[in-house]
């Protein structure tokens, strides 16, 4: 192979890596903004996919642009215009074409400096994917597809269903959004607490499916843990003043820090007391503790913060070989008042028993 072909191969590898990186980092932002302009989830997603496919050849030929996200945004708008022109059956087609044409006539590579608009668009996308009108499996699948950037096949494999089954689930979710005229907007102030709880539940469900898989031959599926944590970090950036958002992020980090030690070489579960602490990710533990501290400073207690605090105490106890069962019992008591369940009450009773003896549990 000649030096020239070697160089072209290296450039090709670099452009492919740039496309993959931009897909992971920018896709949700571009998709969210395009949905706002075209008013159609499927049309926007198809146009963004077209843009990334064109980037593979264009960036290999011309080099990676200085602003990859802006390049994809412009390309996606133009692909949306092409699709609108070809599809005469879409409602409000003329209005959408006019809006996209107006945008396309603007600067060639938008600076994308309107941070508030980007934040609003991404929040709208999160709340649209997690709308209560969609059933929970559909919310999970659509969130991973739109915001996580996972392919339908990747989501299907993660949840151990056939790819066509997962594909139909995602298509039904998008159709439900269109047919039910689910608005692409942030919830009203009075709706926000309940809707945000639903969003956090979806993200935590994704994490739990990765951390303690409900089926299959792997107890831990790290790709789902990583996606949930990435979504959690996105929520922290978009809603930095919400204590429970930080609480969930802290909880996931503290659990995930011990991921490598939870399963032995034979794939068997390893209890906390028996885990090899040298396998723990100390940086991730520190990051989780910082997130928990930030949540606590906001002075709005919630169930994820309490769970994160309990997890932090268990980690610190394992490190010191001393467990503060009294404080753990108090935290479980507070969690029971906020989010009562038999599991929480059982754990509280166990903590009380360890702290004060079996007699204290029955009294």
How does this model look, in words?
- The protein is an all-alpha fold and 363 residues long.
- The chain has helices at 3-38, 41-62, 68-86, 93-104, 115-129, 136-146, 152-158, 163-179, 192-211, 222-238, 243-256, 282-297, 303-320, 325-338, 342-356, 358-362.
- α3 packs antiparallel against α4, α6 (136-146) crosses α8 (163-179) and α10 (222-238) packs antiparallel against α11 (243-256).
- The radius of gyration is 23 Å and the shape is elongated.
| Terminal residue distance | 81 Å
Low-pLDDT runs of 5+ residues are 1-10, 107-113
Global outline: elongated
Portion in strands: under 5%
State the share of residues found in helices, binned by percent.
over 70%
Q: Give me the Rg, rounded.
A: 23 Å
Number of helices: 16
The beta-strand count equals 0
Q: SSE layout and pairings?
A:
Layout: H1 3-38, H2 41-62, H3 68-86, H4 93-104, H5 115-129, H6 136-146, H7 152-158, H8 163-179, H9 192-211, H10 222-238, H11 243-256, H12 282-297, H13 303-320, H14 325-338, H15 342-356, H16 358-362
Concise summary:
The chain is an all-alpha fold. It contains 16 helices and no strands.
Structural key phrases:
363 residues, mainly alpha, 0% strand
């Amino acid at each position: 192979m000649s030096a020239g072909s070697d160089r072209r191969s290296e450039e090709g590898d670099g452009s492919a890596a740039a496309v993959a990186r931009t897909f992971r980092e920018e896709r949700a932002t571009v998709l969210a903004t395009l949905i706002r302009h075209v008013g159609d989830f499927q049309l926007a997603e198809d146009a963004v996919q077209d843009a990334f496919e064109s980037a593979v050849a264009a960036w290999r030929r011309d080099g990676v642009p200085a602003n990859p996200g802006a390049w994809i945004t412009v390309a996606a708008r133009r692909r949306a215009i092409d699709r609108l022109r070809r599809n005469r059956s879409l409602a409000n087609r003329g209005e959408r074409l006019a809006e996209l044409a107006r945008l396309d006539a603007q600067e060639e590579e938008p600076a994308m400096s309107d941070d508030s608009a980007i934040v609003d668009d991404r929040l709208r996308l999160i709340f649209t994917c997690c709308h209560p009108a969609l059933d929970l499996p559909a919310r999970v699948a659509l969130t991973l597809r739109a915001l996580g950037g996972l392919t339908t096949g990747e989501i299907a494999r993660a949840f151990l269903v056939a790819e066509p089954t997962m594909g139909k689930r995602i298509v039904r979710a998008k159709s439900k959004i269109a047919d039910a005229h689910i608005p692409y907007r942030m919830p009203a102030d009075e709706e926000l607490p309940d809707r945000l709880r639903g969003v956090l539940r979806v993200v935590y469900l994704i994490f739990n499916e990765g951390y303690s898989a409900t089926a299959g031959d792997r107890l831990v599926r790290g790709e789902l843990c990583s996606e949930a944590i990435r979504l959690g970090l996105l929520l922290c950036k978009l809603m930095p003043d919400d204590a429970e958002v930080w609480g969930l992020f802290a909880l996931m980090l503290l659990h995930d820090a011990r991921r490598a030690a939870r399963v032995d070489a034979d794939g068997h579960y390893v209890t906390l007391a028996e885990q090899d602490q040298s396998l723990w990710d100390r940086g991730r533990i520190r990051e989780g503790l910082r997130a928990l501290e930030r949540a606590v400073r906001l002075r709005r207690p919630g169930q994820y913060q309490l769970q994160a605090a309990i997890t932090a105490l268990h980690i610190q106890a394992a490190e010191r070989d001393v467990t503060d069962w009294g404080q753990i019992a108090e935290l479980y008591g507070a969690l029971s008042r906020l989010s009562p369940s038999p599991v929480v009450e059982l754990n509280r009773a166990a903590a009380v028993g360890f702290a004060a003896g079996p007699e204290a549990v029955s009294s």
